[in-house]
């Protein structure tokens, strides 16, 4: 799945204990981890995967592929977000 969508949190919730590390930024889960839910069900927790979609580099933070704190240029992703919004929803001075 995509980074930072709650894969590890869902496993923790189903297991009713903290078996997977979680965090607010992408990259907490660094390797594949098997968690035995019950006798018949085993879940796999894995790092997020973002496939190259051919989008410009500014779109990577929008897909959760890069933590906001690691951005060199926060303006480019902000502009990409604004381009996706209808102009009547964005206030202009």
From TrEMBL:
Which InterPro entries did the record assign? GTP-bd (IPR006073), P-loop_NTPase (IPR027417), TRAFAC_YlqF/YawG_RiboMat (IPR050755)
Please provide, alphabetically and separated by semicolons, the GO molecular function terms listed in this UniProt record.
GTP binding
Q: Which UniProt keywords apply?
A: GTP-binding, Nucleotide-binding
Domain named G: which ranges? 1-50
Listed under GO cellular component are:
nucleolus
Give the coiled coil ranges: none
Q: Does the keyword Iron-sulfur apply?
A: no
What protein name does the entry list? NSN1 protein
Source species: Campylorhamphus procurvoides
Q: Which gene encodes it?
A: Nsn1
């Amino acid at each position: 799945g995509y980074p930072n969508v709650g894969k590890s949190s869902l496993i923790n919730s189903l297991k009713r204990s903290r078996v997977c590390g979680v965090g607010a930024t992408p990259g907490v889960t660094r390797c594949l981890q098997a968690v035995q839910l019950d006798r018949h069900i085993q879940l796999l927790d894995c790092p997020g995967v973002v496939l190259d979609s051919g989008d410009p580099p500014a779109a990577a933070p929008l897909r959760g592929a890069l933590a906001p704190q690691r951005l060199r240029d926060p303006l480019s992703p902000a502009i990409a977000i604004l381009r996706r919004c209808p102009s009547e929803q964005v206030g202009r001075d």
